[in-house]
Amino acid sequence: MTQSPAIPLPPPKERRRLREAASLTRAQLASRVGVTSETVRGWETGRSTPRGRKGEKYAKLLGSLGDEAGVTPDQDGAADSDDPEPAPGAVLSRRAARARRKTVPDRKRPVAKDRGRGPVTVPDRGRAPAPHGHRVILTERPRTTPPRRPDDAITALTPDQAFDALYAFCAPALVRQTYLLTGRRELARESVERAFQIAWQRWPEVARDRDPAGWVRAMAYECALSPWQRFRPRFRHPEPPPPDAFDRALMDTLLKLPPPYRRTLVLYDGVGLGLPETAAETEASTRAAVNRLAHAREAVAERLPELADPETLHWRLVELASVERLRAAKPSVVRRGGERRARFWTRAAIAFTVALIGTTALTVRTAPTHYEPPVPEGETVQGVPPRMAPGPLSESERELRAKLRKEEQRGPDRLLPQPW
Question: Domain 12-73+90-110, what architecture?
């Protein structure tokens, strides 16, 4: 009995590139193979190696994705060129790839079970057509992976150019996402600018992050949903609502949701992240993210029954965010604003430190060198007669003195010393 040879697997980075080139998420690829998205993440990062039947199925799927990605218009027209005739195996593989593309079934929708509420279906937004006259502007992640640049072109970017590219790529969509969270146009713009200013201050950390866009998005959401925003005078009064009645009802429904539920709904049904990514960004478990998503959908469907379908809810969120003319500032303005803010707080910290040092030195210079006990306050003593100076005798006192002098000899005999 002979064993069939194992299908070779591409390197981990190539596995991820093939998946992204086919516009597949980890959850969608995991549903095809029959594993979890965390397992696919481990295969793509090289922490684990596919084995057994799952590994063979994964290798075959990557091979089909590679064949689909390899069929380009230039390859289709290769027969008309002056190049020599390709090998029969190559022609057969191209024809097989075309046949796979025509007969490939629709991508399965992963289902996340919610205890007590039934399955929560994950819509496949990669194949859903956009409504007429609308553009997908709520997510900053492209539907197709752009051509990969060489490593020398990536490393040739300066920090300023890399930051400007990240800002131009993420800021417009991020402002609209933050508007759905807060319902305030100015607060959404300020939160995004503040998030990018913090990212510029921590640029070495952000540049090495595997998902810089997710890092900035999480920071923008934290700034927008901060409870300290309610104490700012300019944000105490609500802004004018959207002009359309349905948009006003949807925005009121979103604002009545608790912030964690609202954030989960925007990330999952608005941006289009998977459940593991949504749970990680909201700092919750996958089960908690499913429960929050189910509660948020129930609240929206209870008030707006026509949005019970997740796909319809997604496009309504996109339309609501695209109605408002929300513009982000230029990247150079945000970068310079962050630098000015950093310089201001640095100088303020230095000034405070100098003032503290001066106050300490003055205290040490003027402080006493030894302890001096305080003098207690005087107390009044009761019951003591007042002091009187001797004065002239009165008439009665004179009579008493004369009487005593006269009766001095009439008393008992006194012992007097006798002379010898």
Answer: Orthogonal Bundle (1.10)
